[in-house]
Specification:
The complex is a heterodimer of chains A (about 290) and B (about 300). By secondary structure, chain A is mainly α. Chain A has 13 helices and no strands. Chain A starts with a helix and ends in a 7-residue tail after the last helix. Chain B is mostly helical and about 300 residues long. In chain B, helix 2 crosses helix 15, helix 5 packs across helix 9 and helix 12 runs antiparallel to helix 15. The chains are: A mainly alpha (about 290), B mainly alpha (about 300). At the A-B interface, helix 1, helix 3, helix 4, helix 5 and helix 6 of A face helix 1, helix 2, helix 5, helix 6 and helix 7 of B.
Chain lengths: ~290, ~300
């Protein structure tokens, strides 16, 4: 091969990937940013440049503010629970044995099931008339529930399946971190008389800082993008109590065709997620203990 | 927490005063206990999936009884066929399969050369270009929805396989994963190939790619899961019933057969099945890569 051919070869190798990314990722982002400055409705030929008016409206739009609040509630209901369960699950399956392998698989497998499937299975479990949950409650002598039809509990109903599906994935991340914990720490602590619970809390937990932090960042990003659960379980209701950011964005863009407005929401979501990630990196990242 | 508790007990067991025989018996009892608890926990964790399958195989009327039928009196395998015949479910399934397979093929075809260039070739702007590729991971998919839809409508791509496949062919994460793997391939192997007169393309095809089969399998798995499970995007870029994917179809099914739970659970089971099977096959290869994948549903 000639030198000249070699010089061009890398670009030949890279062109398909870069061209596709440019066309289907970078161009659309720029396009979204530009459209967010217009009042386009998706149908009309003309679009007026209205500057930052969409953004100004967004920040005081009660529907949007409610969606942000609902999303934060979803984060609060899912993320701490997922992290705690993931840590406990990782401790439970850490040692290698057949039972541990089975349990590890059981924890991890829900994560590969698509969210619409998970959502619909849990709608059936929560069914107020014939659902499994109410049967279990009645056996225990507790009153039945109707989680998804009450505006005060619907978000909990959306959160439970999410936690069930998510924490096994976090567990896998934590397990990868546990492999790197130097066993001599545990041995030293054991010789000093520390029990298993103490060692889990005082040695394993702090040394898992980076992995827990990674789960936290991933979890926040995922939670802000929640959509399918809401669409299948509650359609944002009852009384908009589960109307989250992406659901609101979807409605603005594809039900009301407020294209410019939806683009502004999308751009704000992107900036918001970027900011959250950055703050987490800066603030928490510096406090995480790296081995 | 079973490990923790048994480990606490094990510490006590290890007390030197204990005789050897008793020690061993107690150890065995504890192991059995811990294993039993773990299997029990696994069953509880999997119960929603088990419940889905049990309902899927119930006669339609048995689902709406109180108390719920846990184990169906007879297994209604017909339900699975009923789903296949109900509306375009079989077509949706086929659509999702076509899209997933084509996306995987595209991912590898585009990703392998790109990753190889980043891992092994020297050229100006390499690091900057790699950062650009990684930068695409920072952009949430929702931002792209509206502009992609507008763009694809303009091209007349709405309601087509292209719309479901082409935008996902270049995947920065796959490129990243493969690059990491290619960098781990010993350079000596490639040097030997160079001495034998191989050019870069042959080295990539005959030396590096065969060694990378596990990484390729993991990439294919991750692509399969995200393609098979995606929901919001196909919901937006498909219109006609025959172009829906299986996840969107499930949602339509639900609005049409709202209370036919055995039918809905049969559909759900059929959708979950390939993902679970593929996961069980590949789980042992995932340990290291999955942790950094940021795989999403």
């Amino acid at each position: 091969m000639t030198t000249r051919g070699r010089r061009w070869l890398p670009f030949l190798f890279l062109t398909p990937a870069l061209a596709l990314l440019a066309c289907f990722v970078f161009y659309p982002v720029v396009s979204a940013a530009v459209t967010s400055l217009t009042n386009w409705n998706g149908i009309s030929e003309t679009r007026d440049f209205i500057g930052l008016r969409n953004y100004a409206e967004l920040l005081v739009d009660p529907a949007v503010l409610r969606a942000v609040g609902n999303t934060l509630l979803y984060v609060a209901l899912t993320l701490p629970a997922s992290l705690v369960l993931a840590f406990l699950a990782a401790l439970a399956v850490e040692r290698s044995s057949i039972a541990s392998t089975v349990l590890r698989m059981a924890f991890a497998v829900p994560f590969v099931i698509s969210i619409p499937v998970v959502a619909i299975v849990w709608v059936w479990i929560f069914d107020p008339n014939f659902g499994l949950l109410n049967y279990v409650l009645s056996v225990l002598g507790l009153p039945g529930q109707s989680l998804l039809t009450s505006s005060s509990t619907a978000m909990l109903g959306v959160a439970i399946p999410s936690v069930w599906r998510q924490f096994g994935y976090f567990m896998l991340i934590l397990l990868a971190g546990m492999k790197n914990v130097d066993p001599t720490y545990h041995e030293a602590a054991r010789i000093d008389g520390a029990g298993a619970a103490t060692r889990a809390l005082r040695i394993t937990l702090p040394l898992l800082g980076p992995q827990l932090f990674f789960c936290l960042v991933l979890g926040v990003i995922d939670a802000f993008q929640v959509f399918a659960q809401v669409d299948l379980m509650t359609q944002g209701g009852p009384l908009e109590s589960t109307d989250v950011i992406v659901y609101e964005l979807y409605q603005q863009g594809f039900t009301y065709f407020h294209i410019g407005y939806a683009c502004a929401m999308a751009i704000l979501l992107m900036l918001g997620l970027g900011l959250v990630t950055f703050v987490q990196q800066r603030w928490l990242g510096s406090k995480v203990f790296y081995q | 927490m079973t490990t923790t508790r048994s480990a606490v007990l094990l510490d006590r067991v290890a007390a030197p005063a204990m005789s050897r025989g008793r020690h061993r018996t107690r150890l065995r009892v504890l192991r059995t206990l811990s294993a039993t608890l773990k299997i029990l926990a696994a069953l509880i964790m999997l119960f929603p999936i088990i419940w889905m399958v049990l309902t899927a195989l119930e006669p339609p009327k048995a689902a709406v009884t109180w108390p719920p039928t846990i184990i169906p009196a007879h297994w209604e395998w017909q339900n699975l066929l009923r789903v296949g015949r109900a509306g375009p479910f079989a077509r949706w399934y086929l659509n999702s399969l076509i899209v997933a397979v084509a996306t995987i093929a595209g991912n590898l075809l585009v990703g392998i050369p790109a990753a190889y260039a980043f891992a092994r070739m020297r050229f100006r702007g390499r690091n900057a270009l790699f950062l650009v590729v990684l930068g695409s991971l920072m952009i949430p998919g929702e931002v792209l929805l509206v502009p992609l839809f507008v763009m694809l409508s303009g091209w007349g791509w709405v309601d087509s396989y292209q719309a479901l496949i082409v935008p996902f062919i270049a995947n920065a994460f796959v490129i990243f994963l493969l690059k990491q793997f290619f960098e781990g391939v010993p350079a000596e192997l490639e040097e030997a190939a160079v001495l034998d007169g191989c050019g870069p393309i042959r080295i990539m095809r005959h030396v590096v790619v065969p060694l990378a089969v596990p990484a390729l399998a993991v990439s294919a798995f991750l692509t399969f899961i995200s393609s098979w499970n995606s929901y919001l995007y196909p919901l937006i870029v498909t219109r006609s019933e025959s172009m829906r994917t299986v996840t969107v179809g499930l949602s339509l099914f639900r609005s049409e057969n709202g209370t036919d739970w055995p039918m809905l659970m049969s559909a759900a089971t059929l959708i979950a099945l390939p993902a679970i099977v593929v996961f069980l096959l590949i789980e042992r290869h995932l340990k290291n890569t999955m942790a950094f994948s940021g795989m999403k549903g």
